[in-house]
Structures are given as C-alpha cells and as structure tokens.
Prior knowledge:
4 helices
Amino acid sequence: MNPEKATEIEARAAFYHMKVVGRIAFDPVFTKAMVQGETLPEYAPQADATRQVKEIWQQIITSEAMIH
C-alpha cells in the first residue's frame, strides 16, 4: 500500500540480515474481515490476499522448522 514504507522495511531487514519472505498486496477484504470479526481465511478463503498470507506463513513455518 505504501511503496516507500515497504522499501524502508526491506532495507531494515537487509541491515539485520533478515529475509523478507513476501509481500501482501493491499486488498479491502482485510478491512471487511476485521469489521466482521473474522480472520481473512474465514471471511474470504478464495481471495488472493488469503492465498498470499498462506504462502508466506508456509515459508515462515518451514524456515522455523529448519532452525530447530
């Protein structure tokens, strides 16, 4: 949503030798899910944003498993 902030976050991650595992495009479905009191997968299981979140989460848990 804010390309300048995204660039800043990625630069900070690089400074700390951290990997950015993905980006999630802005989608109004986030706000709609929040207003309904539901998680994104509950509210919009087929949304692109849901798919992006799931893909990133899978990378995180896979990387976490490799650390332990």
